[in-house]
Amino acid sequence: MSMTLKSLSLAAAFAVLTPISVLAQSTDAEADTDATNDIESQLPLGEDADKDPDLGKPYTAEVIGSWELRCIKTEAEDPCQMYQLLDDGEGAPVAEVSLFRLPEGGKAEAGGTIIVPLETSLTDQMTISIDGAKGRRYPFAFCNPVGCYARMGLTPADVTAFKRGNEAVITIVPALAPDQKVQLKLSLTGFTASYDKVSVIQP
Questions:
Q1: 79 Ramachandran zone, left/alpha/beta (phi>0; psi -120 to 50)
Q2: What DSSP string describes 80-146?
Q3: Based on the domain organization, do 31 and 113 belong to the same domain?
Q4: Are residues 90 and 184 in the same domain?
Q5: H or E element, residue 58
Q6: 52 located within any domain
Q7: How far is residue 17's CA from residue 9's CA, in Å, rounded to a whole number?
Q8: Are 82 and 98 in contact (CB under 8 A)?
Q9: How far is 128 from 167, CA to CA, in rounded Å?
Q10: Number of H helices, E strands in the chain
Q11: Residues 6 or more apart from 64 whose CB is under 8 A from it?
Q12: pTM for this structure?
């Protein structure tokens, strides 16, 4: 009986110890792999010496009125968008506006993306009006750590209104103060000249 119990005790001990041994080996192997990856991440693999180091990087090609012509460096013709940073009237940045042209043949002549702060009421959507005219409302598409994004399509009539206008007002509602409205001023100075230089974004 004692031999049987002793054998069972040893068997139980091995049953418990074996997985721990295997786990220890696995952990050591993972640690070795992580160490190798850390070393590799610090070793440059080299690149084509003739490659332009600025490829893929954004840059401001020029400033026209209140708009920046922001482009991406490529090996061919650099795609460019219109860009304007909006502040709260006291210099603190609040929102970003980017506009681009679309291929001919669709209902929208141009498109845009507007980024507003995270604590914005999404259900109230976003409204844009030009020189006090009746506004148009646009829904928010998604939010990420940068902010909440509203995408909009501009018809030929919308683009004409932007070209003729002096100032657009973007209205949003704070999520923590739903009874209030925040109005951001978008200057249209230089809009026409900037729009003529903007790239057509291909689908």
A1: beta
A2: EEEEEEEE-SSS-EEEEEEEEE--TTSS-SEEEEEEE-SSB-STT-EEEEETTPPPEEE-EEEEETT
A3: no
A4: yes
A5: strand 58-64
A6: no
A7: 12
A8: yes
A9: 10
A10: 3, 11
A11: 190, 193, 194, 197
A12: 0.71
Copy the structure tokens of residue 21.
């041994």
Residue 124 to residue 199: CA distance in whole angstroms: 32
Please answer whether residues 201 and 79 qualify as being in contact, where contact means their C-beta atoms are separated by less than 8 angstroms. yes
Q: How far is CA 84 from the centre of its chain?
A: 15
Q: Following DSSP, what letter does each residue of 170-192 receive, concatenated? A: EEE-BTT-TT--EEEEEE-TTHH
- Whether 164 is covered by a domain: the verdict is yes
Give per-10-residue mean pLDDT for the chain (203 aa).
Answer: 36 37 49 67 69 78 96 88 92 93 93 96 96 95 96 96 97 95 96 93 68
